[in-house]
């Protein structure tokens, strides 16, 4: 293995150049004008996998919009390994990225990757998708390349699945997994889309939050109205939207939907203590982004609020006049993009219905509502007894020189739940991003350390899983 | 006078053509790129007034932004009339217009006036500013033209003041009136910027609501955040903005700011009965715009809610991701344009301070706010004993063949209050717009009837005020 690690060290610059090529493709999955770019990114990955001895191809998906292709690859030694009873891993990542707005806040162009030193002095790669998730995807592919280059084969059987809709609902993933069960089933899934709790502590994320994402649009008058002529008497959708949104949390930050907390467990004291050690105060999580106080449910620390408590957020809101100056108008419409983050135990469909019922029940005369779903997925928790968990923790600890920990993650990675549901196997989430990587924000970045030690980590994990 | 009325009837087409010329100038006062258009509109009016024997010129204003010129004109017989003790009127209108968004809802171009038949079969002129206020301004100028053409002089001394910032704060008007007191003082102001209660009942508006218009912007994190990584723990300015806005009205629609209703009087039973006759139910006001229920303060009819009760409205709100699809982001900022409509007796500056104190007092940790004022003006009520009120009511009744009534108006026309304050005289608000003229909205229109009988009404009013 040390030869493989040495090869990784030698090849750092070339690996980074390959990542830059992928980052240059603006594969924004939620924007229709980038449809072809998503296909280009998928095709680029297929070519890359083929160069390192994978049988790889794109698969069209047709169950839902937007329908960006899946990339699937299998190492050519898989068949032989299957006969030998060797461990088989399925790696998952995604090649699509978030939109780039607000564009004026980027210091460099989002799809022209460049190298900078960040505020903390570490060297980083700056580009949309650097950290979420193209950089992380390439840590695994580069680890495979190194094994292949040095030994001509991987230590375990490896299949790779790369999705193009993780940032836009991902509704095709589950039906795709179900339709390709035989092709994709392995012993364990390895998902690389998470962050480390700090610069030096490697982690396996053992719980994730799911999401219910809803867009609502309220409509009242048949046109925008003069707020003098009609103000008070005419229903104002922008005001009513604020009222509905406001009512979703109480004074203590708890979400008010009936049954919302059904099935939600409070973490055990040992876990809370471990997390309190990693994040001694709220600022330890929030200071990076200029905040210092946990804003959510009272009685829980900032890290608990994001790792193990469900949340409600306004992701976007708009209505009426938003340009320069002032316009005394009552808008005819107002809309909002809202999301709930769910922890294991909560039922996403039940919560979506409770939300819609709440809105309908509180809608006054003259006002109508439309709902658009932008996805619903359950929270996820890894089997603590998984035979692959200990091996992976050990490999990570050796690479980083510090004991690896298990953590939660506030984000949604529906694939973890869906892999379990469709393929009947567990998933280990191992990622090397940092909290200050600005993911989903301007100036997204991925550290040289993350990328390089990420590759080395996978080299070790693949070896550990073979034992 | 009948010769003058006959002249107006003969000259209808030419009068409309002149109005079209004015409507073609996109004098949007709140948008910087239309600064020169505002100046062009002012200059067009100066030329027009000169052709009918007025000494007219533009006056630069410099006290506040945006600084669009005032147009002032005096009929050349004014000096002689002053010596003879003849009545002197000051006419007020405004040549600036609202922005045109949302542009896609216009059926014709906002600044290419055209003639259409509206849903109710009446012929209308369609253009931004047709009704608010260029069409109304031209009713008066055309009445003056007719008197001059037929008799070579007006029946009373006439001065004209046309503002270019009525739709954008109008902060220069009061200092301008104060600085030009000697030039502008008259016996009575005539303001043409209001609507008739229905197609056939002429009205003098005797009360107006003032406005406090505020823009607030809340800022939390130093950048947009991933709502998975930070959702719950990070302060969400879009949610907090909703919460602040929601809290400004209680369950009964009353505004919650301390002292907000200080000085607010309930109208007498006779006035309420007169209004109930004009508007027998809420739909009589609201049906035109597709609504049917009074949405504001319980215990008041729709017309009372707009004519004599103060209100709070969200005129615009924005924050986070508003484009296609979904972005799981916690916005770093969210902002809203908010306004209070005030009735006579309320103190706008006190209410602005109460609003700002409410926001500051309810702002959680980590969140900062900025306030931008977009104007503050008091409500207004006409002296019921004004010697000019009866004469004007009588002239209107004669023109329209139906008794003229006194009404309220929910809009703000700060000039009425400011004329009283700066020039020490009362103001009569006479207008010919209709509730369904779509002012401040797409497809703004002004009826042929409004324009033609508006001109004829002023012909009669000028005569009546001379007696």
UniProtKB/TrEMBL annotation, chains A, B:
It comes from Bombella pollinis. SUPFAM superfamilies: Zn-dependent exopeptidases. The lineage of its organism: Bacteria, Pseudomonadati, Pseudomonadota, Alphaproteobacteria, Acetobacterales. This is M20/M25/M40 family metallo-hydrolase. NCBIfam families: PRK07907.1, PRK09104.1. Residues 218-366 form the Peptidase M20 dimerisation domain. It comes from the Bacteria. Keywords: Hydrolase, Metal-binding, Protease. The keyword Magnesium does not apply.
């Amino acid at each position: 293995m040390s030869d493989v690690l040495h090869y990784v060290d030698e090849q750092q610059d070339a690996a980074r150049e390959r990542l830059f090529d992928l980052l240059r493709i603006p594969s924004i999955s939620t924007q229709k004008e980038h449809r072809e770019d998503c296909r280009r990114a998928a095709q680029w990955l297929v070519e890359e996998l083929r160069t390192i001895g994978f049988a790889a191809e794109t698969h069209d998906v047709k169950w839902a919009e937007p329908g960006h292709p899946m990339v699937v690859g299998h190492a050519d030694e898989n068949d032989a390994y299957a006969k030998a009873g060797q461990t088989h891993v399925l790696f998952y990542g995604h090649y699509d990225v978030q939109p780039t707005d607000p564009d004026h806040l980027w210091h460099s162009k989002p799809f022209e990757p460049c190298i900078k030193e960040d505020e903390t002095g570490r060297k980083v790669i700056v580009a949309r998708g650097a950290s979420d998730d193209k950089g992380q995807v390439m840590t695994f592919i580069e680890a495979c390349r190194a094994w292949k280059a040095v030994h001509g084969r991987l230590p375990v059987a490896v299949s790779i699945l790369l999705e193009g809709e993780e940032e836009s609902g991902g509704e095709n993933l589950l039906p795709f997994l179900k339709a390709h069960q035989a092709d994709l089933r392995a012993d364990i899934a390895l998902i690389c889309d998470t962050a480390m709790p700090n610069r030096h502590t490697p982690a396996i994320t053992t719980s994730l939050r799911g999401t219910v994402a809803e867009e609502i649009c309220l409509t009242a008058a048949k046109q925008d109205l003069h707020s003098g002529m009609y103000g008070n008497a005419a229903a104002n959708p922008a005001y009513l939207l604020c009222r509905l949104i406001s009512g979703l949390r109480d004074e203590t930050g708890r979400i008010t939907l009936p049954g919302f907390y059904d099935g939600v467990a409070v973490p055990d004291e040992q876990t809370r203590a471990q997390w309190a050690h990693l994040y001694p105060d709220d600022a330890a999580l929030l200071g990076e982004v200029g905040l210092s106080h946990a804003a959510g449910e009272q009685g829980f620390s900032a890290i608990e609020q994001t790792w193990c408590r469900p949340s409600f957020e306004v992701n976007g809101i708009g209505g009426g006049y938003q340009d320069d100056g002032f316009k005394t108008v009552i808008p005819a419409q107002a809309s909002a993009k809202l999301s709930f983050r769910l922890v294991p135990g909560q039922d996403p469909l039940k919560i979506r219905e409770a939300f819609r019922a709440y809105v309908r029940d509180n809608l006054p005369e003259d006002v109508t509502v439309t709902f658009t779903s932008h996805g619903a997925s359950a929270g996820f928790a890894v089997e603590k007894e998984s035979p692959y968990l200990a091996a992976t923790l050990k490999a990570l600890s050796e690479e980083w020189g510090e004991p690896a920990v298990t953590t939660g993650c506030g984000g949604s990675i529906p694939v973890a739940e869906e892999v379990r549901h469709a393929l009947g196997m567990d998933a280990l989430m191992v990622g090397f991003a940092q909290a200050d990587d600005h993911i989903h924000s301007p100036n997204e970045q991925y550290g040289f350390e993350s990328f390089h030690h990420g590759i080395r980590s996978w080299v070790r994990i693949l070896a550990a899983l073979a034992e």
